[in-house]
Specification:
- With about 80 residues, the chain is α+β, with helices and mostly antiparallel strands.
- It has a single domain, classed as 2-Layer Sandwich (GMP Synthetase, Chain A, domain 3).
- The protein contains 5 helices and 3 strands; from the N terminus they run ααββααβα.
- The chain has a 3-stranded mixed beta sheet with strand order 1-2-3.
- α1 crosses α4.
- It holds the Pfam family DciA.
- This is DUF721 domain-containing protein.
- InterPro entries: DciA-like.
- It comes from marine metagenome.
Length: about 80
């Protein structure tokens, strides 16, 4: 089994390709732990849209990874990360 740090590096590399340029401009993966992917959102207006897209984005990310690493996404606003 891969180490969490290795998974994070892989996620960072495939993120834009997996979720698309428009989505990746507004969020970035932070950490993957216990199949939960924490993603930083840059703008409050995007958070509800991204939450609604979660199931599709999980499928796309897992397809790009070739492994079912992500089962859930938690969307965190940029200011919540820094708090």
């Amino acid at each position: 089994m891969e180490k969490p740090q290795a998974r994070g590096l892989v996620l960072g590399r495939i993120w834009e390709e997996a979720v698309g340029e428009a989505v990746s401009r507004h969020c970035r993966p932070l950490v993957l732990e216990d199949s939960v992917l924490m993603v930083e959102v840059t703008d409050l207006a995007w958070k509800p849209q991204l939450e609604a897209m979660s199931a599709d984005l999980i499928r796309k990310v897992n397809t790009a990874l070739g492994k079912p690493w992500v089962r859930r996404i938690v969307w965190i606003l940029d200011d919540e990360v820094q708090a």
